[in-house]
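Z., the sequence and structure:
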Amino acid sequence: MKFIRHIQLLLLALLSVAAISCNTGEGSGGTGAIEGTVYKVLHPDDNYNLETDTILAAKEDVFLVYGTQDFYGDDEETDHTGFYRFDYLRPGTYTVYAYSELASGERVAVPQTVEVQRGKTTTVPDIYIHDGKAYGTSMVKGHVWAYYIDKNGNVISQGWAYGLRMFIQRQGEDFPCDDVRAGLDGMFAFQKLTPGNYTVFTFSEDEDEIPSVVAKTISVPEPDQIYMFPDTFRVNIRP
């Protein structure tokens, strides 16, 4: 009986050690905490300077990854001030993230990694997420000048080509992806362009009203930038 009793005590000790070992490492069941704030950077379209507006990110999901795990272990929703908090964490390394959303609808995680200590609250560096139809895209701008000619090809007046239709086409594609009309100052702007090479074109005409294409190419290597044609487009127009 004593031998059996010793075996039982040994098994209980092993189970206790196993239970303790299962409670080590990152995860819930501790006395640490994580808190922080999420801000949202808005990228509206029809803003020809790509200006942004930053607000508190209310009612946004925030996710918490324990250590090096591949999937989040917990999530919280920010309050009206963009604040969130995760309680009852064991010491270790944690990654907090929220999502930005591209104009295409694709979501991109914005992470911050912190160390949690027993019995202490760790403040996460502010997380800035981005949203809006212009986020992750660029803009191409330029000007177009018109020479108004008579039936003999003589210039009778000239000025900014207000209302002239401009087209943009991604190189390698068969058709234009957008068209706009030039403004009072002859300026045109194409919005929400993803990186790539483009051709911008319009039409000119001679004294016989025969149209010809006036085109320029431009490279858009990076998102969230404005690319400007250094040279003005120049066209002939029969009034």
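The radius of gyration is 31 Å. The chain is about 10% helix and 55% strand.

Let me know what you think.
H.
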